[in-house]
Amino acid sequence: MEMLVAISIVLVFMTIAINERDDFSRSVSLDNVAHEVALTVRQAQSYGISSRGSDIGDNVYDFSYGVYFNLDSLSGAFRLVRYSTGSEGGNPNQMEVVNEYQLPSHIELAEFCTFDNDLDTATCNDEGSGIVVFTRPNPDARFFTSNGNSQIDTNNIAVVLENEEGRQRTVVVNLTGYIYVE
C-alpha cells in the first residue's frame, strides 16, 4: 500500500514538472525570437552606418539597411534588406533581401505599432507593417510604411510577437536608434 502511495505521488509530481517544462520552453522560445528580431534591427543599424556592401570607389552614402516587417504576407518571417540605389530607403522595389528569418510555427508577427512616448498609447493593428531603415552616417532610425511610399512620423515603433498561447513580447525601436525588448 505504501508503495502505491509513493508511486502515485511521484507520478503527480512528474506530470506537473512535464507540463511546466513545456510552458517554460514556449516562453523561452518567444523570448529568443524577440531578441533575434532586436538583434536583426541592431545588425541593420550597424550595416547602415558602416560602409558594408560597397566596393572601393563606391559612394558609401548610397547604401541603406533596414528590416522589413509585413504582417500580411510575411507573418512567418521578417527580412534584413539593403537599399543600394542611393534611395533614402523604404521603397520595396529598390530593396535587396540580405537575409530572411523564418519564425517558428508557433510564433507570429502579431502587430506593428507606432507611438510617441508611451507604449500604452500605441496605435497598433494586425494588418499593418513597416520598414525600419538606417542610412550612413546617422544611427537614427527612420520608419516607412511597407510599400515605402511614405515615412511614418513617429518617435517609436513596436513589433509585437505572439505565441499560440497568446503570450506576447514586444521589440521597440526608438527614433534615436535605441532598440529593446519588452
Describe the structure.
By secondary structure, the chain is α+β, with helices and mostly antiparallel strands. It has one domain. 26% of the residues lie in helices and 37% in strands. The protein has one helix spanning 2-49, and strands spanning 64-70, 77-83, 95-102, 107-115, 123-125, 129-135, 138-145, 156-163, 168-174, 179-181. It has a five-stranded antiparallel β-sheet with strand order 3-2-1-6-7, covered by helices on one side. It has a five-stranded antiparallel β-sheet with strand order 5-4-8-9-10, covered by helices on one side. The longest helix is centred in the first third of the chain and has 48 residues, at 2-49.
Could you list some keywords that capture this structure?
alpha+beta; 26% helix; five-stranded antiparallel β-sheet; single chain; 1 helix
- Which percent band covers the strand fraction? 35-45%
Overall radius of gyration: 21 Å
Strand order, biggest sheet? 3-2-1-6-7
Number of domains: 1
State the helix count.
Answer: 1
**Secondary structure tally: strands:** 10
The dominant shape is: elongated
Write the layout of secondary structure elements.
Elements: H1 2-49, E1 64-70, E2 77-83, E3 95-102, E4 107-115, E5 123-125, E6 129-135, E7 138-145, E8 156-163, E9 168-174, E10 179-181
Antiparallel strand pairs: 1-2, 1-6, 2-3, 4-5, 4-8, 6-7, 8-9, 9-10
Q: What would a concise description of this structure say?
A:
This protein is α+β, with helices and mostly antiparallel strands.
